[in-house]
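LOG
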Amino acid sequence: MVREIVRDPLFLAQRSEEARGEDMGTARDLLDTLRANRGRCVGMAANMIGVKKRIIAVCDGPVEMIMVNPVILEGSGEYEAEEGCLSLDGTRRTKRYRRIRVKWQDMSLRERTGTFEGYTAQIIQHEADHCQGILI
């Protein structure tokens, strides 16, 4: 189900809780909402659709991925980026890493780890920040 985008910075600044099996409906809604906004968005966190759970959806070209309870384990190659957000007006500068190693669970709650670079790494970092209540 496509959900409305939350734009309340006080809500978005709250830390999200760990996601569990019963939250996979939220993950599906998050992916549906991301797909509906593909023309202006490449990633979303569950708090952006009003649910304070640690779930993110990422699109990198044709590849769509749900990450449940993502944790960035390490990063390298820090640089300054300018990013926009569907929940906020305008763009802002922030620090990102060119390469990150991430641990997460898939929608079956199987643990995964992976290394991401470039734009995909930037998207994951932005959405993981949302889970921590960090707004750019």
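LOG (cont.) second protein
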Amino acid sequence: MPLVRIDLREGKTEQYKKALADGVHRALVEGAAAPADDRFQVITEHPASDIIHDANYLGIPRTNNIVMVQITLSAGRKLAQKRKLFQRMAEILAENPGLRREDLMINLVEVAWENWSFGNGEAQYAE
């Protein structure tokens, strides 16, 4: 059910982008109980001028290597699961591809279960 959008500055290798995608998915499975085969991701690279961020918001020093991850998922996870997701993603991406924890921004967008269609023009999760 999660739809993941990963935004970063252009110029990273295919290996780097694959590690990001794999790590985000692994964190979703381990931290938010997402099904392992439920993987839908979009990676978008932007010119340097199109990624705008504060270099020190909330006292967190960010570099130009910032990666913004937005995850649309079904509503219902508890705060503890969300915190575990954030923590696991930071840990996994620090390991590979070596993303600084300070350079990872995550945003969750929760939607009602009936707002998904995975094909065939059907609302598979609707009651």
